[in-house]
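Sequence design from tokenized structure. All designs in this work follow the same two-part layout: the structure record, then the generated sequence. An example of the structure record is given first.
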């Protein structure tokens, strides 16, 4: 679990600003749910025989003896909240969320025990138009961030529950022929959750998995039609994709459309966004049958990708415009007041007033370190003359002295020049 330090938060805020604005542009509304839920919610939705529920959840008993779990993902909680609050009754919903998720995994680059996701969940629309909308929304984010040429969209269809059940029998029969090559996880899952074996990253099983029967060849007609329409819509929108018949996703609630955006720039932690359709989940959790589709993206991986590819705009780390220095009691008092005056007059100005006194040399050092482009100087002389000294911190330009009344105008033009 990581601390997010002040030198990293500007990139996160840049990413979050882009996301928030984007969601607004598609008419998605934000939902915030608690970080804790009843353990049973995750077991019932994600599935008992999944990596998350078998070995990754942070689960504990509270003082009443209730079993609670730090949320490992967002979908289950959003469905619970939407059901409890009547958001799914005779209406459609387009929701988004962001926040920390918790999984007890082996920490490594791009994989942490507390990580952050941005996700969307939509309800009450059968698709494939809404499936495509969620993909277009994510694609627009990649475009805005400059990531589009570095990510690939992988698609698959898991079909209906019935088609999957029939396929499952074929798959079990196939894998039973190769029992020797299966690893421990795969053996354990052969009868409880054989589709998950397709998801294995074990290179020793790669050949057997590659030759396994494919779900895409066993789809029911409606799912086949849904998938064909989905691909046609993506073609029309100019979104490239790769059909990956082995894409099954690590959670049990998906049916029909599943997709992942992957990158080769982050080593084995290559999936930056993943989602799909989960038409059965609301009913499974006790609600009326409600179709649904959504995705979740990993914020740490996306920030890492932006940094690795040097796609963070330079001005993201520029967090201050001006720094006021003051020398002597009277000037220090005046500096605080001037700071407030300037903030009232220029709401876009990012200004810090030096606190704690010190020599000219030490204050200039702090001003320089602050990243500001301009230092305003208030000493005894300036006070008597009703003026302010101006020192340009990022250009070779002589110090100036300005009448207080001309200051706001000067700062305005300085701001527009550096913007
Ligand atoms: P993976 O196969 O990488 O374990 P997953 O299938 O478990 O991913 P999801 O549950 O679909 O992942 O979560 C969606 C996204 O959240 C992932 O694509 C990834 O970007 C991010 N993510 C998942 N687990 C972690 C983690 N432990 N640390 C950082 N990001 C994560
Ligand atoms: Mg995982």
């Amino acid at each position: 679990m990581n601390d997010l330090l002040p030198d990293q938060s500007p990139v996160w805020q840049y990413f979050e600003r882009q996301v928030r604005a984007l969601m607004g542009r598609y008419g998605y509304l934000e939902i915030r749910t608690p970080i804790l839920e009843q353990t049973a919610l995750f077991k019932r939705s994600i599935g008992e025989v999944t990596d998350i529920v078998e070995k990754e959840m942070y689960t504990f008993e509270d003082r009443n003896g209730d079993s609670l779990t730090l949320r490992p993902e967002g979908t289950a909680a959003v469905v619970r909240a939407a059901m409890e609050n009547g958001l799914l009754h005779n209406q459609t919903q387009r929701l988004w969320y962001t926040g920390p998720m918790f999984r007890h995994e082996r920490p490594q680059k791009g994989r942490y025990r507390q990580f952050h996701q941005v996700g969307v969940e939509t309800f009450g629309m059968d698709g494939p138009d809404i499936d495509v909308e969620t993909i277009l929304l994510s694609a627009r984010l990649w475009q805005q961030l400059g990531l589009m040429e570095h990510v690939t969209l992988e698609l698959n269809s898991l079909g209906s529950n019935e088609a999957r059940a029939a396929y499952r029998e074929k798959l079990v029969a196939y894998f039973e022929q190769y029992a020797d090559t299966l690893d421990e996880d795969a053996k354990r899952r052969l009868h409880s959750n054989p589709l998950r074996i397709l998801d294995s990253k074990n290179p020793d099983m790669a050949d057997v998995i590659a030759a396994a029967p494919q779900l895409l060849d066993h789809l029911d007609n409606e799912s086949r039609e849904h998938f064909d329409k989905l691909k046609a819509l993506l073609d029309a929108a100019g979104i490239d994709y790769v059909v990956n018949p082995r894409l099954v996703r690590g959670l049990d609630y998906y049916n029909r459309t599943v997709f992942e955006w992957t990158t080769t720039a982050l080593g084995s932690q290559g999936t930056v966004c993943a989602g799909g359709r989960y038409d059965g989940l609301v009913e499974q959790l006790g609600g009326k049958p409600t179709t649904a589709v959504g995705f979740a993206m990993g914020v740490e991986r996306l920030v890492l990708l932006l940094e690795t590819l040097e796609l963070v705009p330079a001005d993201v780390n520029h967090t201050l415009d001006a720094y006021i220095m003051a020398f002597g009691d009277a000037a220090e008092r005046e500096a605080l007041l001037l700071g407030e005056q300037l903030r009232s007059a220029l709401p876009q100005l990012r200004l810090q007033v030096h606190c704690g006194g010190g020599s000219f040399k030490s204050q200039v050092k702090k001003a320089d370190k602050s990243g500001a482009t301009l230092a305003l100087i208030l000493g005894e002389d300036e006070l008597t003359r009703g003026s302010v000294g101006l020192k340009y911190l990022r250009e070779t330009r002589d110090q100036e002295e300005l009448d207080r009344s001309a200051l706001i105008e000067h700062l305005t033009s300085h701001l527009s020049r550096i913007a």
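Residues 319-418 form a domain with the Rossmann fold fold (CATH 3.40.50.800). We note this feature because it recurs in several other targets discussed in the main text.
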